[in-house]
Amino acid sequence: MSSIATLAQSLGIAYASGISPYATITLVGLMQRAEWIGPLPGVMGTLSHPAVLSVAGLLTVFEFIATLVPGIATTWEAIHTAIRPPAAAGLAIATAWNADPSIIALAAVLGGGLGFATHATKLGLRAAVDTSPEPVTNGAMNVTEIGIIASLAYFVWNHPVASLVLALLLLIVTILLVRLVWRTIRKLVARPFTGRPA
Q1: Which pLDDT tens digit goes with each residue over 30-51?
Q2: Against a cut of 0.70, is the pTM above it?
Q3: Residue spans per domain, the chain
């Protein structure tokens, strides 16, 4: 496999980890066990181990439930600022483990940065969604996130560059969406104080 493809796979997994490392590990491991993908390189091959799948699966379920609750969802996301970027870098390194050392180093640096960018964008969107006092929007966001992770976890192994390009485009669209949502919230909050009609 080419160095570009390996790096793209590493960054694709880092992107997914920025959303949820637990769901990423669970879905990649399950897909590997089902032989939909793989065999995966180096350390990534251990993601299908029953112990790894059990722990990651439990954390995925716990995260899904916790982020359904307004208020707790934003707190959970904020706490994971210290977890997701290093996890993204670690999984990027594991994905590139058998590659040239320069590719491994790039995977670590770029993977950690991409994981942070994805997480920060998700945190901004989650905080905005969390302003609504019902669990439906949080639930819809959870299902969307799992769908994105599952799609990327599957396609990045067969179409690494295309999958990464689509993930980066999605990140840009999400950043623009976060900006639009927060502008709308600010206008709605400011309207009662400006005397403008609703």
Answers
A1: 999 999 997 887 789 999 999 9
A2: yes
A3: 3-194
